[in-house]
Design a protein that fits this description.
- It is a single chain.
- The chain is an alpha+beta fold and 260 residues long.
- Helices cover 19% and strands 17% of the residues.
- It has helices at 3-17, 79-88, 100-112, 240-250, and strands at 122-127, 137-141, 147-150, 181-191, 194-201, 215-216, 218-219, 238-239, 255-259.
């Protein structure tokens, strides 16, 4: 075995062993969330940032291969096209849970890129305009139109005063910020956060997602309760109790749209 081969093998092993967003241990009792107190603030992710294997390739093609709606510039979609797409999916979100503009953008992107989206059963909208107290990760069943909304963390760098609102976003490694834009989910791997779901950023604002190890994973600092959730290092972390269900629904090519 050559030295280069040995190094590559060691890197690959580390990738599948360590967790995205760090390799921290389990939370202490001081990080427990209160289901009763709306003033509670959950503790943050105390992990060290863990980069992915540099040789790990996107499973969803290149961002430039995707068609992103540019209605304001009239480059790709017209308002008539958008109206036709929304009419086609008028059964989606009958209770009007998801902000209409964000949902419309996600549906148009989904329709324009359907041939490249492998998992067409679900699309999701993460509404970062809402406080982390709110269930703002909206998972939409594209067969029934029903929406399942859950809590999700945002990055520590996006909410420096930990008031529950993400105010800043970045595509830069080390920023600890969340990134906006369209993502396509990849495969799963097992790290120190357990099973986690890789993400490929398909917009200029999140194209470094894989290199930053921005993934969906479970976290003890997120709960399904009306509290300010703990902050990740940029990952859309969900409650540990929901992690398996969420990942199984969204893995292998589902669209996620993160918007402010």
């Amino acid at each position: 075995m050559t030295k280069r081969t040995l190094v590559n093998a060691m890197v690959a092993t580390a990738f599948f062993t360590l967790a995205a967003c760090g390799q921290g241990g389990s939370s202490t009792s001081s990080e427990a969330l209160s289901d009763q107190s709306t003033q509670a603030v959950a503790a943050d992710d105390k992990s060290d940032e863990q980069a992915f294997n540099a040789d790990d390739q996107s499973e969803n093609g290149k961002p430039e291969d995707m068609i992103e709606e540019q209605v304001s510039e009239g480059e790709i979609s017209t308002m008539a096209t958008r109206a036709a797409v929304l009419a086609k999916y008028d059964y989606v979100d009958p209770s009007k849970v998801v902000p209409s503009t964000a949902l419309g953008n996600a549906l148009v992107y989904f329709e324009n890129n359907k041939s490249r989206i492998k998992n067409r059963d679900y699309i999701s909208v993460i509404d970062f305009s809402k406080s982390s107290r709110k269930a703002r990760f909206h998972i939409i069943n594209m067969n029934t139109g029903k929406v399942w909304s859950i809590h999700v963390a945002h990055g520590k760098g996006s909410d420096t005063n930990h008031d529950g609102y993400a105010e800043r976003f970045s595509n830069t490694s080390g920023s600890k910020m969340s990134s906006l834009g369209y993502y396509i989910t990849g495969s799963t791997y097992v790290g120190s956060h357990g099973t986690s779901l890789k993400l490929d950023g398909m917009s200029s604002t999140n194209s470094n997602a894989r290199g930053r190890a921005i993934v969906v994973h479970g976290a003890d600092y997120v709960s399904e309760s009306n509290v300010i959730q703990g902050r990740s290092w940029g990952c859309p972390a969900v409650a540990t109790s929901l992690k398996t269900k969420v990942i199984n629904m969204l893995k292998n090519g589902s669209l996620i749209y993160a918007v402010k």
